[in-house]
Specification:
two-stranded antiparallel ribbon; 245 residues; single chain
Amino acid sequence: MSLARTAPVPAPADRRPVLAVAHRGDPYRYRENTLPSVESALAAGADAVEVDVQLTRDKVPVLLHDRTLERLWGDPRAIDRVTVEQLDELRRGDLAIPTLAEAVKSVAAANGPRLLIDLDEPGPAAATWSVVTGLGAERLVAFCGPVTAMLAVRELTPNASIALTWKQPRMPAPALLKDLRPAFLNPPFGLVTPEFVGAAADAGLAVSTWTADLRRTMRRLRDTGVDSITTNRISVLRSVLDGRR
């Protein structure tokens, strides 16, 4: 299964299935960006699991969205002030902050879904790519994030699948698309209209969108012709895309 799909949007009867992407795993069931959350999303039928990556003090990529440990783990320290070994002190039973390598191996064991790595800045890109190549997992992962982070990824590899996070109603400049070569344009769901999807298709881009948690929003996005939907409620999205109650 590949996240890359750049052909123009086909007629509804001929469309490929919309990809169901689990946002930080299955966070309504397990704490976000933990292995139980990732594995729950895979069990629910996610086509890909989106995770966030930060670097520890010793430059190990780990799964965490915030710059500090406060919100999820009750520790005020910044992640870049803590070593990966020290993170084990925060373990709560099966819940812990996993390394990126652990998450890649977990998704690889599912034999089909991919890991969508969200980078919000360029800093972690090199260490992240080093983990991916060290595990031989280049075809297992894709990347999403803003322009600066995705340009850092593209400088590391000409072949990575990239979803450019985009928060404007107009299309990116052709020069940027030429340099970055994204497979997807990745706007928040409020920007997505049939016209936006059509303009993206004219530019040779598929459309992924985030973060839709209501059934009516999922159905609307599906009907606009998007190629991928990210959600915190992967079981619900899976049922909507599969036509089940």
